[in-house]
């Protein structure tokens, strides 16, 4: 059973964390130990409210790393086959479609707009 003093200290620490953000010792203790030391699983994250010179290394999740690796391997394989280009593929020409009532209506509206403009010029 924690004493009143310990509970008061814990409450004050929680209030400080809410006001100032979490302290670095609590972040370090919450990090997973063994594989997080591998630089392949670390991601650089700037701490909130600090200058940009400081950077905290936070472990990224392993499934995300695996998915990124699979995507990069697939891109590499497609490049070898000549199917992956850096620029976008050219647009294909769409098949011509028949004019609908709406198309005729838009043409007439365009004709009327030019007609009204010319009529205003005459006046």
UniProtKB/TrEMBL annotation:
The keyword Nucleus applies. One of its GO terms (biological process) is DNA repair. GO terms for cellular component: NuA4 histone acetyltransferase complex; Swr1 complex. Keywords: Nucleus. It comes from the Eukaryota. It is found in: Nucleus. Pfam families: HSA (PF07529). Residues 89-123 form the HSA domain. Residues 20-29 have a biased composition (Polar residues). GO terms for molecular function: chromatin binding. The keyword DNA damage does not apply. Residues 14-37 are annotated as: Disordered. Its main location: nucleus. Coiled coil: none annotated. This is EP400 protein. The gene is Ep400_2.
């Amino acid at each position: 059973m924690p004493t009143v003093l310990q509970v008061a200290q814990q409450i004050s620490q929680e209030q400080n964390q809410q006001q100032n953000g979490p302290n670095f010792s609590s972040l370090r203790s919450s990090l997973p130990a063994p594989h997080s030391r591998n630089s392949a699983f670390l991601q650089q994250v700037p701490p909130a409210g600090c200058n940009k010179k400081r950077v905290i290394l936070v472990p990224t999740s392993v499934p995300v790393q695996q998915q990124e690796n699979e995507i990069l391997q697939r891109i590499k394989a497609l490049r070898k086959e000549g199917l992956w280009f850096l620029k976008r593929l050219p647009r294909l020409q769409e098949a011509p479609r028949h004019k609908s009532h709406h198309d005729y209506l838009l043409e007439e509206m365009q004709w009327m707009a030019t007609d009204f403009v010319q009529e205003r010029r005459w006046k």
